[in-house]
Amino acid sequence: MIELLIGAMFAICATLVVLSTRKIVVEVPHDDRQYMDPPPRFYRLTWPLVRLVAHYCTWAVTEGAATRIQEALRRAGQDYTLTPVQFFAGKLVAAAMFGGVLGCLTSLVVHSALLGAVPGGALGFFLPELWLRDMTKARNLKILKGLPYFLDIVTMAVEAGLNLSSALQKAVEKMPPGPLMAEINRVLRDVRAGKPRTDALRDLAARLDFGAINSLVSALVQGELMGSSVGPILRAQAEQRRTERFQRAEKLALEAPVKMLGPLIMCIFPCTFIVIGFPIAIQLMKSGL
Q: Cβ neighbours of residue 202 under 8 Å, at least 6 residues apart?
């Protein structure tokens, strides 16, 4: 009789858990991504969990934090893939996954799940931030590499008689697709929608927020406001960006020997000493010393 009561209680508990879980999942609203890009791979693989956590943890993202995350997503080119709440939910999901996995591993080795769960959770929580920072650096580097050639095309189009908007459109048609072309297309869409060109350019500088684009936008806006020709401004900007690119390459080349010292001292020198010292040690051992 007691066994039947215990079994019935377990069955009732399991039913209540299933019904509660179903209610929690059903209350999550449908995600309309008609005008959104596909999310990154980790978010795509864990998307149901991300949606669930995002729905119930909206209160944890303050207005200031949402603004900061939105700006970081915009600089990385991910503002049309994730919302700030979804990005934060992905951090929580990653923290739970990493903490759970490392906790299970450490519990098998040292019989203490907490020893691995806490560092794993911290790693998982901050890993999306590191990924977003790397995405921003890689995107800015691609923009910096394509900017001189893009400005050369715009300069030739302007000097051939086109206005700045038409010259930008012509350069977009001639250049290969990339983050720079995506941002220029966005500027052109804003202009076609009725936004003043200077405001569209300022929005471009605010979205990317790094030195080369800020300098270019400041020069173009100042030239437009003063009514001067933008041809010489664009040519000067192209030369400056090309010079900065060469200087950056020289700087990386000069830093390479310094960065090689660590692997050289830690890996190559010990192996060299072993190769040189082993025959000497053998001879000393044979001679009885």
A: 217, 221
Helix extents (H) in the chain: 2-26, 41-45, 47-56, 63-75, 84-109, 114-159, 164-174, 179-192, 197-208, 211-226, 230-263, 269-286
Task: Assess contact for 154 and 131: CB atoms under 8 A.
Answer: no
Phi-psi region of 36 (alpha: psi -120 to 50; beta: other; left: phi over 0): beta
- Report residues of the chain scoring pLDDT below 50: none
What's the DSSP call for residue 267? Answer: I
Is there a contact between 77 and 141 (Cβ–Cβ < 8 Å)?
no
Instruction: Return the structure tokens found at 128.
Output: 């999306």
* Every domain of the chain and the residues it spans: 37-136, 141-246
Under DSSP, the state recorded for 265 is I
Distance CA 171, CA 24 (A): 51
Cα–Cα dist 250/283, whole Å: 48
The confidence score (pLDDT) of residue 57 equals: 82
Structural class in CATH, domain 141-246: mainly alpha
Q: What is the pLDDT of residues 222-236, one digit of tens each?
A: 877 777 777 788 888
CA max distance for the chain: 95
Tokens of 253: 């080349």
Q: Is 82 helix (H, G, I), strand (E, B) or coil?
A: coil
Predicted structure pTM score: 0.76
In angstroms, the first-to-last Cα distance of the chain is: 84
**pLDDT score recorded for residue 276:** 82
